[in-house]
Amino acid sequence: MADLKNRGKVKVVDGRYKFDGHFHYIYPNSPIRNEDGTLMGVTNPRDITHVHMYGGEAPFFESLEKGKLLGTRCENHDCEHSGTIHVPFKIHCPDCLQKNTIIDITDIAKKTAKVHTFMVTERTGAFNTLKIPIKFINIEFEGVATILMSYLPVGEPKIGMRVVPIFQTKNPTYTILDLAWVPKGTDVSKLPDGFSFE
Asked: Per-residue pLDDT for 108 more than 60?
């Protein structure tokens, strides 16, 4: 077993990322044998720490632990699409490339969010920490130009169903998994552990 005491960590010093420790551990191989005991291959276990830098998207992920959903809006009056709101968060307007303004759309989401489309899957991919089957939903909001992909941990999705956001406020991961949705009217006792409406 690898010594994980010096597992990789990252901090910011003078506005730059400073890396310390080990980000890659190699473990001993193990044989893979068939029912007859014939060698078929080996495992090649690795433990890798990935660093994902948010840059200008950091406010979006940080706001989730506070029970807030942020979007962005183009406020360039010379842009043909001035006033357009984007969720998921877009740092720059895709039309004029000017930096967007961050806005709180929590109330818009609570009042107008509904399921645009959905799919139910047993194959989780990057979302392998979610309970299967996973009910992925695409959410549309009134006055918002884009559609947000998320998941529904409670209830059964239906196209057009009104949903409200819930937030992982107890033990946030600072990832998109800190945001989920439930059918409007869901009782607080039905929410997954660590999630709240605010």
From this structure: yes
